[in-house]
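Regression test case RT-17, inverse folding.

Input:
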């Protein structure tokens, strides 16, 4: 399956990409350092794995790929993908997407985290133990906190000898127009997380979707600077950044899928804030962004329909 590149590569370039895809350019040693900034993309699926490897290998600078371990799956479903992707990208493992959290009890979250950490350990560079935690669709806040604590304890306590890195992601709600329940407010929910998570997480991230708010919200660099500064105060030992950005379409209840132009505009807006946010927030700001639909948007056969050139240009500038 062809992967869209910015322009048709020469024979020499094709050979170089093929070589990189075959051999990799990153150390695969367990416990490797993950350098900032994080040039993040997200994959919800590991189908078309070889096309995905080729796309990631072709980026000018190594990406950090967040693999969403889907509900109902097991580590065996991802073993080949982790092995094939690790030489070409840094890996984040999302134990459960926020949309699946309500389906799992605290004990089930703990057991699931154990299964995946036992299987992959430090082959996953960062373990996301909580995704979009302050969302009403996850359940009641006390249960959400308990589930995040259960996953965190597996990563940071049960497997302390592996010195794994943990991350938590919250929704960034710039105003009350973006959420339904008072407890979903970003800052107060963050402050109410267990102390072990607030002091022990290595990464604290914010997820943001413009269309989650009504009317549509497009926060400024100044607003995000405030949000990340407050997040860094709540998580004093963590790096901070975006844990997810993207667009919403039919699967999210909207009438249509966003156009390619709309997708590009959103990616440009938030990845494009990187230099300004790094300057304003400081060295603890690590980027991230983690475009949600990399698998769908970048692995397209025709360059004219692909987000790969846009994401490549944005990440290359970071």
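Golden output:
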């Amino acid at each position: 399956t062809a992967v869209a590149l910015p322009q048709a590569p020469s024979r020499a370039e094709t050979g170089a990409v093929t070589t990189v895809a075959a051999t990799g350019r990153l150390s695969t040693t367990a416990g490797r350092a993950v350098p900032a900034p994080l040039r993040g993309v997200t994959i919800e699926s590991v189908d078309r794995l070889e096309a995905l490897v080729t796309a990631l290998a072709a980026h000018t600078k190594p990406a950090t790929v967040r693999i969403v371990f889907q509900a109902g799956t097991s580590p065996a479903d991802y073993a080949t993908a982790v092995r094939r992707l690790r030489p070409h990208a840094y890996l984040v493992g999302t134990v459960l997407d926020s949309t699946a959290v309500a389906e799992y009890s605290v004990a089930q979250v703990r057991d699931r985290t154990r299964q995946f950490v036992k299987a992959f350990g430090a082959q996953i560079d960062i373990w996301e133990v909580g995704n979009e935690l302050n969302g009403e669709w996850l359940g009641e806040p006390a249960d959400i906190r308990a589930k995040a604590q259960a996953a965190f304890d597996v990563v940071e306590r049960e497997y302390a000898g592996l010195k794994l890195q943990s991350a938590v992601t919250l929704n960034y709600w710039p105003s009350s127009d973006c959420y339904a329940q008072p407890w979903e407010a970003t800052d107060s929910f963050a402050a109410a997380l267990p102390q072990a998570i607030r002091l022990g997480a290595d990464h604290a991230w914010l997820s943001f979707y413009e269309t989650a708010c009504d009317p549509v919200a497009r926060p400024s660099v100044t607003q995000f600077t405030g949000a990340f500064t407050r997040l860094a105060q709540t998580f004093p030992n963590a790096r901070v950044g975006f844990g997810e950005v993207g667009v919403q379409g039919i699967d999210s209840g909207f009438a249509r899928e966003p156009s390619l132009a709309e997708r590009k505009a959103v990616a440009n807006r938030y990845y494009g804030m990187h230099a300004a946010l790094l300057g304003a927030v400081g060295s603890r700001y690590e980027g991230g962004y983690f475009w949600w639909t990399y698998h769908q948007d970048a692995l397209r056969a025709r360059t004219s329909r692909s987000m790969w050139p846009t994401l490549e240009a944005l990440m290359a500038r970071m």
